[in-house]
Specification:
Elements (H helix, E strand, L loop, with lengths): L16 H27 L2 H14 L7 E5 L8 H17 L6 E4 L5 H9 L3 E2 L5 H9 L9 E5 L4 H10 L3 H4 L2 E6 L1 H7 L2 H7 L1 H6 L4 E4 L13 E5 L2 H5 L4 H4 L32
Parallel strand pairs: 1-2, 1-4, 2-3, 4-5
Antiparallel strand pairs: 5-7, 6-7
Helix pairs in contact: 1-3, 1-4, 2-3
């Protein structure tokens, strides 16, 4: 990947008519801009500097991921930050040996053009047209079902991380997860402990069982990857947590949360975006 580029999957199917030609041209422009973002990551040295962080979980005993799930990428066709995040994800998949077809993305902001471009790149979209899957996708409640999974969640809201942890709240499941996203240490530092424990209890409980390595700071990507870390949960550290940590597994409700950054299944009538980015 580092020496080449990304190509559309599917052998370049032909589209007829003016509309088809315009759609093909737009798709080609999106892919060209994505290649440019990839080249930026490589030529700037950011990807090379990040390699140690993204491979840290494997060196720390984590199982190599077989699957990837991406939340909250945003409108990458028009947003340079989102485009660089997608380019980083594609480099990451190759580095870790995860085929694009085993990476699923969810963001309600994706346009039809963007969804088509992701499909052409061989990536998949969540959900698979099932309502319960949609609910869980919107709220970040994705179970790994026994497969080692990389979660790519740059700048997602805290509740999304909390829900993901709740859905996989066991030593066996958490030890098979790697999360690339907002720094858990940063959340702990910025929030009052009583707020963290009340509103985001699963983040609070897993902190002592977490290993975290920050992506390097780079002047070109201060807004794109700021506060982003690679997190994993070594089994030996999880086993050191008190047994009481695993006893309480109530689904988060956020009844007292004043700054909820996702839309719950009972709140979708107001038309807000279910996956909210955190500034």
């Amino acid at each position: 990947m580092a020496a080449g580029g990304w190509h559309m999957a599917g052998g370049g199917r032909r589209r007829r008519g003016r509309a088809g030609g315009e759609a093909a041209a737009e798709g080609g422009a999106v892919l060209r801009r994505l290649r440019e973002a990839r080249d930026d990551l490589l030529s700037s040295g950011f990807w090379a500097a990040s390699a140690g962080a993204v491979r840290a979980p494997l060196g720390g005993g984590a199982e190599p991921p077989a699957l990837c799930v991406c939340y909250g990428l945003g409108r990458f066709s028009g947003c340079p930050a989102a485009r660089h995040q997608l380019a980083f994800l594609l480099l990451l998949l190759e580095e870790l040996g995860v085929p694009p077809g085993r990476c699923s993305l969810f963001d309600p902001a994706f346009s039809a053009q963007e969804a088509a471009a992701l499909g052409e790149l061989g990536l998949r979209l969540l959900p698979d047209n099932e309502r319960e899957t949609l609910v869980y996708a919107q709220e970040g409640k994705h179970g790994i079902e026994g497969s080692a999974t990389l979660f790519y969640m740059v700048h997602c809201g805290k509740a999304l991380y909390n829900n993901l942890l709740w859905r996989n709240w066991s030593e066996g499941a958490l030890s098979k997860m790697v999360i690339v996203g907002n720094s858990f240490k940063g959340m702990e530092e910025r929030l009052l402990s009583r707020i963290l424990e009340r509103d985001y209890s699963y983040i609070a409980k897993v902190l002592k069982g977490t290993e975290e390595v920050a992506l390097p700071a780079h002047p070109r990507y201060l807004d794109t990857f700021n506060d982003t870390s690679v997190h994993w949960f070594p089994l030996h550290k999880l086993k050191e947590l008190s047994p009481e940590v695993w006893d309480f597994v109530e689904e988060p409700t956020y009844q007292d949360c004043d700054d909820l950054e996702i839309i719950r299944k009972d709140d979708r009538a107001d038309g807000c975006s279910p996956v909210a980015a955190e500034s």
